[in-house]
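Quick one:
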Amino acid sequence: MPSNLPAMPIRDESKKMDVILDISNVTVRFGGVQALDDVSFKVSEGEFLCLIGPNGAGKTTLMRAVTGVINPQSATVRLAGRDISNLPTHKRVRMGLALTHQIVRPFRSMTVLDNVALTAGHRLISRISRAMISGNRSDARKQARKYLSLVGIEDVAKQRVVGQPLGVAKRLEVARALALKPKVLLLDEPLAGLNSVEAARLANTVADINRQGLTVVMIEHNLGEVLRVSQRLVVLDNGRKIADGSPVDVMQDPTVRAAYVGKERRYVAA
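Output:
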C-alpha cells in the first residue's frame, strides 16, 4: 500500500513514543445508571490500541466523552499534551481527533470522491458551505483521491454512494476521517456487519495506516481480528477498566475471560 498520509513517517519501533492521548478519570452517569466509572488510560504516539468488552461495557460512551459528544460528570482529556476537556467537539476535531461511527452516514446524493473532498475542504476552511467552491475544490479532490487510494476504493471514486456495498461504505467512513488529518484516529466498530474476508481486509488496511505512523484507537467486537492486528488492549466491563496490556497477557487474565469470552474459554497465542 502506498504511503499517502502527508507528513507521516514510518514508525520506528525501537524509539520510545510520547503519550499522544491521555484519558483520565472519566465518569459518566445517565440518570441512575453508571455508564463509566473513573476510567483512565494513556495512548502512545503511533500505537494501535483496541478497546474491547461485552455489550454495554461503556466503550462507545467513552469515545463520545473523549470527543466531547457527551458531557461526563468528570474527565480530563489531553491531546498531545494539551488539555481539551472543556472544548466543544468541533474544536477537538480541529486539534486532531477524528471519530468514525459504526453506522455510517455518508452524503448519499454525492459521489464517493465528493464525500471525502467535502471533508478535506472543510478541514482547510471554516465554513462548510464554502468547502466545495471552485478555488478549493481541486486541492480537496486531489487529497480525497489519496485517501480513497489508501483505503482501497479509489476505483469507485466517481460512483454515487447510493447502492455501494457495506464494505465500501465502511472504507469511505475511514477515508473521510483521514481527510481531517487527525493526530488520533478513533474507530467505533469498523468491522461490524462485514463478512470474514471483508473484515480481515479492512483490519489489514487499518493496520497499514497505523504502520505509517497514525495513532489508532479502535472499538471492535471481532476478537479474532483484534488479536491479530492490535498492539495493546484496554478492556471495559460494566463501565470499569478491568485490564490493560498486550493482547496475549490480557486474554490470559481470568477476569477478562469471565467478562468477555467466558470462564471456560482460553485464548491460545498463535
